[in-house]
């Protein structure tokens, strides 16, 4: 059974996926302003039960899309942060070695009694083998994010964040989970999801991902938004902001993105700047205020030094756009 089929019987939030337009409205209701392209990709991914690979520069709302989907559907969010060297023991499961060792010590004194009446070495080894199987059973299992997601009977949102920071071996390991929503554990067998999770993979394009992984996913690239959409995002996240200031700061940020900077401001930095300006009781952009708060939207000193002499000119550009 799909998540939406289950939710339709009990939760009105499932109606948000009745169409692309209702999904746009539903996401807006939980604070995520989605373009039609984003909503269409998510609509298809959920209804077709396909993982969705979301790419784009840092700060454009990739992770937030997964968080908002979980909130919209009132589902638990299980997040796995990827990094170089991530392996099966950290992603799927591992055994509680400390607990196994403790139980081994407790049973040590009893092993002699258990084996005392064994008829020969073969019978003794068979009994020891039975004891060994006990140590690789559910009470000694430590589930990690992927197994937790597969075991959520009512479904969940699984966020595999920054998949491009993992290595190719981990990509290969993920293929079974992404294609069949199941995982193989040698000691326990195949664990298959009762309700397939909604899977988001995010990538900042640090490296190219393999074709096998991409084939299993729907692809979505989130670009930096047009000014009108970015103003909607700022207004949604910072509802106290005045319309004129919103136009000015978005216009200023878009002017910055035209410059040759080491790191251009992302959406998240635009929102942070809006909050900072509200904190400073600003109702419009002034050169001194902009210079004092450039460190909110620019993350490298060389970028700040390059922009400071151009602040007045950039403000005129932003004012014209407002």
Task: List the keywords.
322 residues; alpha/beta; Rossmann fold; 3 domains; five-stranded parallel sheet; 16 helices; 9 strands; 12% strand; elongated
Oligomer: single chain
Number of strands: 9
Q: Roughly how many Å is the radius of gyration?
A: 26 Å
The whole-number mean of residue pLDDT values reads 86
Write the layout of secondary structure elements.
Layout: H1 3-8, H2 20-29, H3 36-47, E1 52-55, H4 62-73, E2 77-81, H5 88-91, E3 93-95, H6 97-115, H7 121-135, E4 141-143, H8 145-150, E5 157-161, H9 168-180, E6 182-185, E7 189-192, E8 198-203, H10 211-215, E9 218-221, H11 227-237, H12 243-257, H13 267-279, H14 287-297, H15 301-307, H16 311-321
Parallel strand pairs: 1-8, 1-9, 2-5, 5-8
Antiparallel strand pairs: 3-4, 6-7
Helix pairs in contact: 2-3, 6-7, 11-12, 11-13, 12-16, 13-14
